[in-house]
Amino acid sequence: MTTFPLVLSAPSGAGKTTIARRLHDRRGDVVFSVSATTRAPRPGEVDGVDYHFVAEDEFRRMIGAGELIEWAEVHGAFYGTPLANVGQAAERGRFLLLDIDVQGARQIRAAVPEAVHVFILPPSGETLVQRLVGRGSEDDVRVQRRLKNALAEIATAAEFDHVVVNDDLDEAVADVNAVLEGRTGAMRPHPPLPRLTDAVRAEIERHLGSSV
Ligand code: ADP
Ligand code: 5GP
């Protein structure tokens, strides 16, 4: 059976994990790629389900042993996709969802040319701030770091095959589902990318400027 890898990237808090979970719950043919990470588990996160939580020594061993198809340092921790996930997806389902950052997406583009890449954008910078703060998973310092990183991440949106604005969750999920089904004509149109991304980035910059 062939595997169709779908990469979902987004600034932290834009909703890519929520969208990936919805797709996974809705479709029996979607396999979620469980990444390895050195970051600490959040309350409710389960080892082996949300992430493989590993110590830095173990992560470095996995890199050295060639066990990761891509890896990156993101927001001060290491994250990587086990190569084994790709093989398992081929056995268990058709679609492999990779929720990874933009550095990892670049590596997947080089290693897995058939992968399709979707960038999830928040409808506005303020919404991103609200979702990130509202999730309650990070302290203020970590929220600021994720917002600063968001500026650079959003600037890479044009590298992606498709952009989905996560305003209404059901509609955003329907758009990503349309990509999975090869019905990209059914996706909602969005304003031209530079206009959209410049507006979101300007709001994040304003927020960061007002909170220092
Ligand atoms: P990411 O994985 O991109 O960091 P999450 O999926 O954790 O983001 O979403 C961040 C927060 O925003 C979560 O609390 C989630 O419930 C909420 N959220 C996600 N999508 C939407 C949406 N379309 N409307 C409102 N809240 C959302
Ligand atoms: P979080 O700590 O919020 O779960 O994830 C932080 C960032 O790391 C997100 O952008 C997420 O997509 C990214 N990430 C998660 N797993 C991987 C991975 O295996 N590889 C890479 N490169 N990034 C990942």
Outline the fold blueprint.
Elements lengths: L3 E6 L6 H11 L3 E3 L3 E2 L14 E2 L2 H9 L3 E7 L2 E6 H10 L2 E5 L2 H10 L4 E6 L3 H11 L4 H15 L7 E4 L3 H12 L12 H18 L2
Parallel strand pairs: 1-7, 1-8, 2-7, 3-4, 8-9
Antiparallel strand pairs: 3-6, 5-6
The protein binds adenosine-5'-diphosphate and guanosine-5'-monophosphate.
Adenosine-5'-diphosphate binds next to α1, α5 and α7.
Q: Care to describe what's here?
A:
The chain has a five-stranded parallel beta sheet with strand order 2-7-1-8-9, sandwiched between helices. A four-stranded mixed beta sheet has the order 4-3-6-5. The protein has a domain at 6-33 and 94-210: Rossmann fold (3-Layer(aba) Sandwich), CATH 3.40.50. It is globular. The protein is built from eight helices and nine strands. The longest helix is centred in the C-terminal third of the chain and has 18 residues, at 193-210. The termini are far apart. α1 (16-26) crosses α7 (169-180). β5 (68-74) and β6 (77-82) form a beta hairpin. The mean pLDDT is 93. The chain has 212 residues and is α/β, with parallel strands linked by helices. The protein binds adenosine-5'-diphosphate and guanosine-5'-monophosphate. Adenosine-5'-diphosphate (ADP) binds at residues 10, 12-18, 131, 134-135, 166, 169, 172.
